Amino acid sequence: MSKFKKDGNKSTPAVSTASLPDIVFMLLFFFMVTTVMREVDLKIKLNQPEATEIEKLEDRSLVDYIYIGEPTNTALYGTVPKIQLDDDFATVDDIQDYVIQKRADRPEQVQGAITVSLKVDEDTKMGIVTDVKQQLRKVQSLKISYSTREKVDKNKF
Amino acid sequence: MARNKRELQEINAGSMADIAFLLLVFFLVTTTMDSSWGLSRKLPPPLIDTQEPPPPIKDRNVFVVLANANDQLLVEGELMDISQLREAAKEFIANPNRKDELPEFKEVDVNLLGKMPVSKQVISLQNDNGTSYKLYIQVQNELEAAYNELRDQLSLEKFGTKYSILEDLAKSDLPSEAEPAKEKVKAVRQVYPQRISEAEPKETGN
Q1: Does domain A50-150 have CATH number 2.40.50.140?
Q2: Contact A123/B145, CB-based, under 8 Å?
Q3: ipTM exceeding cut-off 0.90 for this assembly
Q4: pLDDT tens-digit map of A116-128
Q5: How far away is chain A from the Cα of B49, in angstroms, using its nearest Cα?
């Protein structure tokens, strides 16, 4: 009768973990390929506004970033929104130098195609953003992009 | 001799997973998923003092959007909610009923489409220093959406494809696909040119 119960007493063998490295490597490659290195250490609170009509910036090597927002370390820097260029806080007057410096780092043929991406916290007042834009105009850096998060437009479905 | 053969063992691969995990964690921590999506804009060139002031634009051709420090919108002299801005802007840009108080039209020869009435519309956007960036982006987004919806409509009517799809096609690597799409995009843009002018900022209240 118990034709199939012959092995009943034997304990089940351990699950083989030999393929675990393969799985982990697969994950590793996925993350290596899909992600990009973080450009800077953010020293500001950055909660970007949402928008629907957005475009992707094509060439990341031709984009410079300007961050504006409330410092994360409010005890040290206060709550007034500040500008961050690369890894340091800066003032509005530093923007011209920064843009010119960044432009000079690139080959001459592509200097006209540089886009400045403004990564601004949504609670920031427009005053400081406008000041930054005026500085950008002065150095003829006219292509800008307001960095936003993508919002799903319910009307489109 | 026999002894030597016994020493050729397989390398233990048990720690391979640990090493891979370590690398995986490193990449997880140092990388961000944030992509560079955003609203692209072109700033006007800096003002030159000797430059002649541009000719005045008729009131009916200008759609005035004001945003104040309390994040309220004043559109064409009326208080408006952000949710209504898109429709108002579309109505203004297209002027479907040819109303007298909405913009004038000019016949323009457009490649692929022939003679088309093109509106002389200009959208003027002015914000206060105290306006929040969030509202500013919303306004920019709604205006852009108004243009895009009208362009979609026209493109569907004339070419049978949406404008947004044409734009994607124009970026394609195949010249046989990209070239005709580029022409069509250009034609649609000529009929509905995006003219958003931002006034120099002014300070009113905090």
Answers
A1: no
A2: no
A3: no
A4: 999 999 999 998 9
A5: 13
